Amino acid sequence: MIAFKKQLAEILEKAVATSFEGASLTADELCEMFEYPPDSTMGDVAFPCFKLSRTLRCAPPMIASKLAAADFPEELCTACAQGPYLNFKISKKYLANVLCDEVLARGESYGSFDFGKDKTVVLDYSSPNTSKPFHIGHLGTTVIGHCLKLLHEFAGYKCIGINHLGDWGTQNGKQIVAFKRWGNKEEVEEKGCDGLVELYVKFHEEAENDPSLNDEARAEFKKMEQHDPENIALWKWFLDISLKEYNVTYDQLGITFDHYMGESFFSDKMDAQIQIMRDKNLLKLDDGASIVDLSEYNMPPCLILKRDGASLYPSRDISAAVYRKDNFNFDKCIYVTSAGQSLHFAQWFKVMELMGYDWTDQLVHVPYGTVSIGGEKLATRTGNVVLLKHLFAQAIEKVSAVIDEKNPDLANKAAVSEAVGVGAVVFHYLFNTRIKDISFVLEDALSFEGSTGPYVQYTYARTCSILEKAAAEGLSLAGELNITTDEEADVIKVLSRFPERVLAAIEDYEPSYIARYAIEVATAFNRFYHNCPILSADDENVKNTRVLITKAAGIVLKSALRLICMKAPEKI
Ligand code: ARG
To answer: Mutation test of ligand 1: which of 144, 246, 341 has the most ligand atoms closer than 8 Å to its C-beta?
Structure first.
């Protein structure tokens, strides 16, 4: 619809200049003003004239009727003034062009852009704290982060995905204390991450009665910072165990990272930054710790060094940002974390600005809301967590039971169940506006009806099966296009909005736009499918047209699913 609006805007630009003496508005300005009418019987695109009444000193209905008289080519659209609106109906000819010259001609690259060419975006996402379980709270950063990466790649950016593991902090000291006191090598080896989490939970239970354990943990971490070989060996071993488990989940999601570069990597790279803070007189001592006072900016102080000189989360983030700028020369560095960390990011972004870095406007924090299960908040310390792997396993099992019942002969049942089960969870999550809190109900996610992942995937599989039959019939798909029904036109209109949805999703860092869009496509396609016979259409051109619409819908559904980290099985 972007090209369509641009053409309309150019005609309107001329119409404004001729109908209103002395007035000039550029096509670009006019292009920004279009809207989509809530009810498509009114038109496909609307131009609200009240936005111009001041500039043009004229009543909106008058503007609408004057502009309606302009010369809108028939093969583009028809225009009609309705009160303060100028409504446009797209011509069938134009829709046929969209179908062939845009969607079908561009195929998988339809909806992509190249404005990111020669620019680099670094994305910092997932980044779990090792030693803690990988739970449903990490779903957000993992899938929103990866989706933003895919969206930026779709716009031509070079993207670098970094897993900034939380692998360096007192929590790792706690892990070591717990292992040294109560752990056993064979058991941890056998249980993997679960064994580590058990120890972590035990630590917190024991520390309730014996707070000195916390001092012990700090001391063990301090030893890590001083390269104590025993502790470093334990730490590395724990890290390997955690990574092995994360990778199972990342594989299920189809996610890979360009770098695993966690906080430990920066533990010894802070001196230069600390020196700059000293030189600029930013550091203050507060009860032995070094802080940057941010009261002037209405924020609590940013903690840079602990009393014992150990680094802290913000100082490691500052070093990491400088490292990334030096090594990747990014145009934008995106951090995806829960909204609970918004203050942390605002603080250290400000500190970097005060340090004199002139690229801090390229640092972007993308926050998201909390996840609860059935309304219950999650807390690692008490062991009240829903692990992602368990959630995925449950979803896969349920989908697999449905497939066993409905389509027992399906090939690749295991792979399809995984794609649909995991996809259902991802879709249900991403459908939600990023910043809103979400209460997760697995049954809702797994439904094959309503706004769900399985519904979209199933619709895609439906397009594949129609195309398979068309191929078996040996349809040539050549000849004149003949769009005869509103349902057909509606599918193409929805497809024509894909590029602008991609653009908006990138601008607002909002994967939900794509998830919602996928539902729009699936809904329009299914209405078409139920009301218009496709392969049994009598007229050869009508049949071809409908098969091509099916093909185009399939292309866009597949792209949309891919962009939100979902697989698109051809048969379900
Ligand atoms: N490890 C942190 C956590 O689990 C998230 C890290 C986000 N990235 C960053 N550069 N601070 O809360």
So the answer is: 341
Asked whether the whole model's pTM tops 0.90, one would answer yes
Within 6 A (CB) of ligand 1 lie 124, 127-129, 164, 166, 317, 335, 337
Q: Which atom of ligand 1 is nearest to the CA of 341?
A: 12
Topology of domain 120-381, CATH: Rossmann fold (3.40.50)
pLDDT confidence of 387, banded at 50, 70, 90?
A: confident
For residue range 206-223, list pLDDT tens digits in order: 999 999 999 999 999 989
- Residue 337 alpha carbon to ligand 1 centre in Å: 7
- Within the chain, all domains assigned CATH 3.40.50.620 are found at 120-381
Q: Would you say domain 2-90 falls under CATH 3.40.190.10?
A: no
The residues, ordered by sequence, that sit 6+ positions from 114 with a Cβ below 8 Å of its Cβ are 155, 156
Residues of the chain with CATH 3.30.1360.70: 2-90
Q: Which atom of ligand 1 is least distant from the CA of 313?
A: 11
Least confident stretch, 218-222, 416-420, 437-441: 437-441
